[in-house]
Each structure stands twice: as C-alpha cells, then as structure tokens.
Amino acid sequence: MPDADHHGGAPLAERAAAPHLAALSEKARDYARAARSENTQRAYDADWRHFASWLRRQGLDPLPPDPQTVGLYLAACMEASPGRAPLSVTSLERRLSGVCWRYRQLGAPLDASDRHIATVLAGIRRAHGRPPVQKEAIFAEELLAMLATLPNDLRGLRDKAILAIGFAGGLRRSEIVGLDCGAGQSEDGTGWIEVFRPATGAKETRAAGAPEASGDGGLLLTLNGKTGWREVEIGRGSSPVTCPVAMLETWLRLGRISHGPVFRPVARKNGGVAPERLTDKHVARLVQKTALAAGLRGDLPEGERRLAFSGHSLRAGLASSAKIEEAHVQKHLGHASPEMTRRYQRKRDRFKINLTKAAGL
C-alpha cells in the first residue's frame, strides 16, 4: 500500500500538479468550454451574472444552492420595473438553465425539478405563457428581391453568397460563418465545403477519394451542429444569377480565398479581405437590412419589420418552400425530430387535411 505522502490516497486536485497533468487540466477546460456554442456560453455567463447580482442585492450567498431562493429569483424576474419589461417565459427558462449549468460547474448541482422551483415555474408558465413568436420565413422570390438590393462589389458579392447559401442549405447563422474551405483548416471552424464538378465541364476542386458528382454537381457541406455531424447538399441553380454555388465560387475567386474561413470581413478603405471569419451577428444584420430594403412585410411599421426577420428566416424559408417529403427536409436541416421540422414550416400544407369534411360536415 503506498503512503499518503506518495499521493496514493490523496485526491487528484490535492496532489502536486505535475507539468503534464497541468497541461491536461488546461486541455480539459478547453474541451469543457467547447461543449457549448459561443453564443450559448455567452448567454449562460450573462445569466449567472444577473443571478449573482440579484443575490448580492438581497444579501444572499450563491453557495450552497437553495431552491427556495431560486424560486424567489424567478418570481423577481417577472416583475416589471421602469425601463425594463418582464422576461418572456422562454427567456426565463433559458436563464434558469444558465444558472443550473454554472452550479454544475461549481460542483454543487441545482435540481431544477425541486418542488420549490418547479411549482413557481409552472405558475409563471400558466400566468405569462404565450405562443412562441416565430420569425418571418423568407421565400425564394423574396430572397431574389433581397439579393437585388446588394451591389456587385466584393462586399456585396460576399453577402449575396451568404444569403443564398444560408437559404439553400437551411443553415443556422453560426453554421454559415463557421464554414472553412476544407477540413481541419482552422481551430474555430464548425464545418467545411467541397465543390463538385458537373458531369461535363471544367474540373473543380474535390476532396481526395470523394465520389464523382452526377448531373450538374454542386456543393457539399460537412457540418458539426447541434445534432452532431451531418452532410448538406446544395445543388446548382437553373441560372448563374440565382445559383448559390455560382455565387459562392465568385466570392471565393474574387476574394482570393482558398484556405481557412469562407466568409470574412472586407475592408471599407482598400477593399481587402481580412483573414478572420465573420461573426454570426453579421448574418442577422444582413437579413434584416436586405429584407427592409426589399420591402418585405411593408404592411408593418419599420420597427416591427426589423424584428420580424433574422438569420432563422432563411432556414424557415427553405423548410416552408421545399415541396418534398418531410423526412428529406428534416435531414437537410439536421433536426432530431419531425416535430421540430414542422415548427419551421410556415403555412405549409395549411388546411390540406380537412377533418371537418372528413367527419361529414
């Protein structure tokens, strides 16, 4: 039996940190941070800061976690104050998730199903619950109107490719900006592209060992999303003017991009392309800006029109426009269930099945 002085019975955290263990510890922390997307991590950090600030104002300590205190906090979040509206139920649930996540990291798990928390949350859902507010779907003809508002300079060509690829791929905004030109080319990439050549025509870059494309070829995206790795095929369009693959090829060629992030900032002064990738906020702003410029939902006030559109509008537009079997749409979007896919299909097949007539009325 080894002595305690030789670390036989001491917990790992109490042992002298060997250099290789310190390096592994840092690597483990990196992996733990990578378990959540950057957006989710930022939101959870903000959730904890808000909760910790409320505790300080009440003269309470965060440890150990107290379900009764958390119940009081949830109730406080639903109180309106000058200049601040109460949270939506969805935002409150997300905030509770952030608090629970931080407690797990501190080694003091909080049971969100505890009756003190669950009962308060159930009452809040009953009193304040509303149907989810969905972003407007952008359909193909509306996307073309948005593309027409963009100039044909380098920045405009990049933004056209972003909108077209985002729509045709049914991509999340993080998936759009996370694309690289190839596998393993950056540390922060979440996927990569492969351009397949048509059955006849000029040879295009293709990954080693990849099969030949049939027909017109197209673009293959390999993505690491919420449901794991998936492949998304984007076929070529009927015209170079509307073809997402052609728009992407034009941007890459004129931007002289062959390695690393696909979508990057363009300097306003000299028009040069930066090496770093765009943030996903650019996609949201781009969708809102071009939707307004194209006059989409002109029946709404400008403020409401701006809020009606986001990066998800592209994803919902494809799900609603594609007249194919639902299973194909689900696979394309990377949804874990058909129910989630149906949430994205705005007005699709509405009243197609009429139970009133089927019942004999």
Instruction: Detail the poorly predicted runs.
Output: 1-16, 200-214
Number of helices: 15
The largest β sheet comes out as: 4 strands, mixed
Strand content of the residues, in percent?
Answer: 5-15%
Summing up helix and strand content along with how strands pair, one would put the structural category as alpha+beta
Can you write the helix and strand succession as a string? HHHHHHHHEEEEHHHHHHH
How helical, in percent, are the residues?
Answer: 40-55%
Q: Globular, elongated, flat, extended or rod-shaped: what is the shape?
A: globular
Write down the overall mean pLDDT: 80
Q: Which strand order does the major sheet show?
A: 1-2-3-4
Distance between the termini: 84 Å
The total beta strand count reads: 4
Rounded to an integer, what's the Rg over CA atoms? 25 Å
Would you give an account of this structure?
With 361 residues, the chain is an alpha+beta fold. Helices cover 47% and strands 7% of the residues. It is built from 15 helices and four strands. The protein has helices at 19-34, 38-58, 67-77, 89-105, 115-128, 140-148, 154-169, 173-177, 244-254, 280-293, 302-308, 312-321, 326-333, 338-344, 355-358, and strands at 179-180, 191-196, 218-225, 228-235. The chain has a four-stranded mixed beta sheet. A hairpin with a 2-residue loop joins strand 3 (218-225) and strand 4. The model is unreliable at 1-16 and 200-214 (pLDDT under 50).
Provide the descriptors you would attach to this structure in a database record.
single chain; 361 residues; alpha+beta; 4-stranded mixed β-sheet; 15 helices; 47% helix; disordered N terminus
